[in-house]
Amino acid sequence: MIQIAKGTSRDIRVANRFELLRYIIAGATVSRQRAAQETGLSVATVSNLVGELLESRLLKEVGFEDSRGGRPRGLVSVDPSGGILIGVDVAETYVRVELFDAHLSGLAAVEELLRPEENRPDQVVGHVVSGVRAGLARVGVPQDRVLGVGVSVPGQVDRDGGVSVFAPNWDWHDVPLRGLLAEQLSLPLYLDNPLRAAVVAELWFGAGRGRDNVAVLNLGTGTGAGLAFAGSLYRGATNSAGEWGHTTLVMDGRPCRCGSRGCVETYVGAPGIMQHLRDLDPSSPMLRAGDQTATIDALACGFEAGDPVAVKVIAETARYLAVAIANVINLVNPEVVVLSSWVATRLGEPLLAEVRPILGQYALSRPLAATEIAVSSLGGDPVVLGAATFALEGFLAAIGRP
Amino acid sequence: MIQIAKGTSRDIRVANRFELLRYIIAGATVSRQRAAQETGLSVATVSNLVGELLESRLLKEVGFEDSRGGRPRGLVSVDPSGGILIGVDVAETYVRVELFDAHLSGLAAVEELLRPEENRPDQVVGHVVSGVRAGLARVGVPQDRVLGVGVSVPGQVDRDGGVSVFAPNWDWHDVPLRGLLAEQLSLPLYLDNPLRAAVVAELWFGAGRGRDNVAVLNLGTGTGAGLAFAGSLYRGATNSAGEWGHTTLVMDGRPCRCGSRGCVETYVGAPGIMQHLRDLDPSSPMLRAGDQTATIDALACGFEAGDPVAVKVIAETARYLAVAIANVINLVNPEVVVLSSWVATRLGEPLLAEVRPILGQYALSRPLAATEIAVSSLGGDPVVLGAATFALEGFLAAIGRP
């Protein structure tokens, strides 16, 4: 989060640059006057910022609009050829690399699978590097057209270097990932985790656009929240904010991989949902031992078909999810709560249908009434998109810096 | 929170004014150069802001410092006679009014008790007005020297008018408190609740000074959190953020006055602590039926004297408090967690002594290591001080406004 308490005019200029480009990137072509009206910035500020963005080639002039007899108004739009942005999603079982144009339209995607034993930092770095090189070769652009590479890794990320990863089979503590990547990729690098990538994707392209206070709840194997306040990503004191998955939902409850018990994750993450299924029917054919994705898919189909066990599993998961969402609403009072990640893609709508009617039992009425709750409408992999957006934000923040 | 995403240079100017005055108010006399060093603002910005604050009479020139042969540097300090700030703490059983000079030193305090049946808005407003008038008479200053009146009321506060109060015996819903007060007090009014007053007091005068991310946990009859991010009070979408007391700690647990069950408040608020005592020893002499303050006092004395039941009550309360604090650390990743309000004053240190060794079972190690946890060191009533500080902030925000 930009430090406004000790703010400088530079901080606010960067924030305004984000705001303006978020607006322009959402539309097609726009005049400076219209952009000023829509963003609340002054026309002078918009003209100034548009000038910078034209110079850095992220925007281009695209003609004039009819201004009803007045002076014709110049129109601008994002210049897709302004540069390449690369997003990388490092997960436990794969490394996904996607190349985007400056409009954040996907150009090419490369996925490399990680075998369970491929969990050493040098092995993972190897896959990131080969994925990026393969993507660049496929698109046929030289490396100097790349504005930056955003890399998401699960766990606790120190943006300046060290990374500790949470995945059960990885025992990474303070791995100097930035340095390892920089040895092989001489491109601007932006490191962070999937929680923060997902919320940045929503701020730029999803339900978070134009909102000040946003909570993106990632439901996957792990669970966690990406938070944005005042329209900007909130990081907390050590870039650790948002560990919603490791807040306690049931004191002395299910054991969690973090070492604690009763964490939200153990009831609403994929393994937690599998446990609900196992508790209800240990011999259910929907239960695919060791395969979370297949089990969640089977549950989604079962629910669709009205299978009573699937319906019960969804209801049981929703009971916990409602409390965990209410806790975020009561503490953080967001404008919008977005459910993201692969479990939300498959089960988000049925879960929300169960969650909505019981949320009022736990959330206070005033903040609840102000909260929109939705499943993410971003297609594709929001983490890859968010990681690429980190690279765009980094490029924007560096404009005009010596 | 100031909206930096759609920020203006005016927003940042106000934030810098807060930052500078917070620094000056903490010290005695200071040069512009020193203030610039300590706040990170440029000397030009500080000179500019100091000029404004001299003109509005919050600062005064107080001579020169030796600058080792260079040009003598002018010193400034807060001018206590710059104006009167009034803080009002409306609680269920009393209305406390305190008058402060511009340095936020107390000049006079008036407390009016509310009888249980005095819970109509007009009755409460009557006590606020008579308290303010009595205070002004005692200090002997005319009303036009008052910069503003900050009023804290428990519950959900819409700053522009309506107030809904949470106290068990009060059934206030959308009471137009601002209008009712304005009819009788023609002074700038700033309405908010005790959670937000307490965190603003810590930001200006306590453990929150100079910190970006702060959580003040109020332990009283009710419990809740005041949150600050980027050095500024965080309000959320509807000024409802911080309802930590109504996040769920035990699913299907103790019934809460908010209508839900298992809320944090029912385990660590004064009535919750009394319940722990009742559960452990229903005939304990420390249990003073219907008198929370006397019971908490008796527990504090009992603990001091090594009474085993008191020791067990503290341990039991701490077990819940540790989980509830860990949830804030994991979700919000603050730099500092401050325990405030009257239960914390009496039991905060023994509770923290029990909480610290078990916190690591629930909080993730990286955010936990970065969090300082302390009982508030502010004497007096931090809510009254914070309410008066709202008036100071309001005055500062209005400087230069037409």
Question: How is this structure best summarized?
Answer:
With 402 residues, chain A is α/β, with parallel strands linked by helices.
Structure description:
Two copies of one chain form a homodimer. Chain A is of the alpha/beta class and 402 residues long. Chain A folds into three domains: 70 residues, Orthogonal Bundle (Arc Repressor Mutant, subunit A), CATH 1.10.10; 133 residues, 2-Layer Sandwich (Nucleotidyltransferase, domain 5); 169 residues, ATPase, nucleotide binding domain (Nucleotidyltransferase, domain 5). The first copy, chain A, is built from 13 helices and 16 strands. Chain A has a five-stranded mixed sheet. In chain A, strands 14-13-12-15-16 form a five-stranded mixed sheet, with helices on both faces. A three-stranded antiparallel sheet of chain A has the order 1-3-2. In chain A, strand 5 and strand 6 form a beta hairpin. The first copy, chain A, is globular and about 70 Å long. The interface between A and B is large, with 66 and 66 residues.
Descriptors:
homodimer; 402 residues; alpha/beta; Arc Repressor Mutant, subunit A; Nucleotidyltransferase, domain 5; 3 domains; 5-stranded mixed sheet; 13 helices; 16 strands
Radius of gyration from the alpha-carbon trace of chain A, in angstroms = 22 Å
CATH class identity of the largest domain in chain A: Alpha Beta
Largest interface: A-B, 66 and 66 residues
Task: Walk across the major sheet of chain A and give the strand order.
Answer: 6-5-4-7-11
- Kindly name the structural category of chain A: alpha/beta
- Number of helix segments of chain A? 13
Which oligomeric state applies? Answer: homodimer
Low-confidence spans of chain A: pLDDT under 50, at least 5 residues? 1-6
What name does the CATH topology of the largest domain in chain A carry?
Nucleotidyltransferase, domain 5
Total DSSP E strands of chain A: 16
Q: How can the largest sheet of chain A be summarized?
A: 5 strands, mixed
User: What is the helix content of chain A?
Assistant: 40-55%
- The CATH architecture of the largest domain in chain A can be named as 2-Layer Sandwich
Q: Superfamily at the CATH H level of the largest domain in chain A?
A: ATPase, nucleotide binding domain
How many angstroms separate the termini of chain A?
22 Å
Shape of chain A: globular
| Strand/helix succession of chain A | HEHHEEEEEHEEEEHEHEEEHHHHEHHEH
Q: What proportion strand of chain A?
A: 15-25%
Q: Give the overall average pLDDT of chain A.
A: 92
Count up the domains of chain A: 3
